[in-house]
Amino acid sequence: MIIIGEKINGMFKKVALAIKERDSNYIQDLAKQQISLGCDALDVNVGPESVDPVEDMRWLVKTIREITDITLCIDTTNKEVMEEGLKLSGEGCFINSSHADEEKLDFFIPLAKKYNSKLIVLTISKNGIPSDTNSRMELVSNIITKSLEHNYDITNLFIDPVLLPINVAQQQIISILECINQIKYISDPPPKTIVGLSNISQGTKYRSLIDRTFISLAIYTGLDAAILNPFDKELMDTIITTELLLNKQLYCESFIEAYRKK
After folding, report:
1. Of 86, 116, 190, 191, which has the fewest CB atoms closer than 10 Å, so is most exposed?
2. Domain architecture of the chain: domains with CATH
3. Using omega within 30 degrees of 0 as the cis cutoff, is the peptide bond preceding 135 cis?
């Protein structure tokens, strides 16, 4: 599974301060730590407090690129900020993210093609977030159709069924798992699936327990990627062990350490 570290995000106070004060050491250390914990990519978000998001994104990406060429996941709703991040990140990064509305897709799909980027699309439309599996899959079908119209490589498309906090939307969890599973059969080749894992436990007492239990279920149903907190050791160990039990990793007595080194 592709693991994207969530921590370089201006929504976190220390990161917002580091961006404001141009503290490159803090950002670079945070990047190195997430990589050492097993991340395949790093989410990069300037946060809502940024007064100059284009310049802040430019600084963030350049700062990270000074110490690593790891895949970046440019996380913003601002089109100008997104393109600035893509210019500096290099090919193969993630666009995080588009909605399923036609006008959004008509902008972001060509942008993903221009920069040879992977594209995350949320199952959200002008009508909001679907409440059942069929409605989610209808949006998925529309996303795939629009991608094909633009001759976009479906294997670079990542569908996010949109996790909501379990304390306000418990009934949607089964629908999301069904959606992850059904996406595997909707086209040949199918798009990939991704979730923002921390959303499911937001505002709850047992965050780590909820996160790691859901990720096990999601991996079993076919989840390909997640944006998550790599500092949660139990969560990371659960991902490794789940993939082992699903025969995606080879067993040895020190399988957790071996996977981390890999």
Report:
1. 116
2. 2-261 (3.20.20.20)
3. no
CA 166 to chain centre: 19
The DSSP bridge pattern shows strands 118-122 and 71-75 to be unpaired
CB 166 within 8 A of CB 200: yes
pLDDT of residue 261: 63
pTM of the entire predicted model? 0.96
H helices of the chain, where? 13-21, 24-36, 53-65, 79-89, 102-114, 133-149, 166-169, 173-183, 207-221, 233-245, 255-261
* Residue matched to tokens 């004060």: 21
Smallest Cα–Cα separation from 150: which of 187, 188, 125, 113?
113
Half-sphere exposure of 105 (CA within 13 A, CB side): 27
pLDDT along the chain (262 residues), means of 10: 97 98 98 96 96 98 98 97 97 97 97 98 96 97 98 98 96 96 97 98 97 98 98 96 91 76 64
- The Cα–Cα gap between 172 and 87 comes to 37
Distance of CA 115 to the CA centre of its chain: 18
DSSP code per residue over 206-243: -HHHHHHHHHHHHHHHT--EEEE-TT-HHHHHHHHHHH
pLDDT score for 262: 64
Buried b (16+ CB within 10 A) or exposed e, 100-123: bbeebbeebbebbbebebbbbbbb
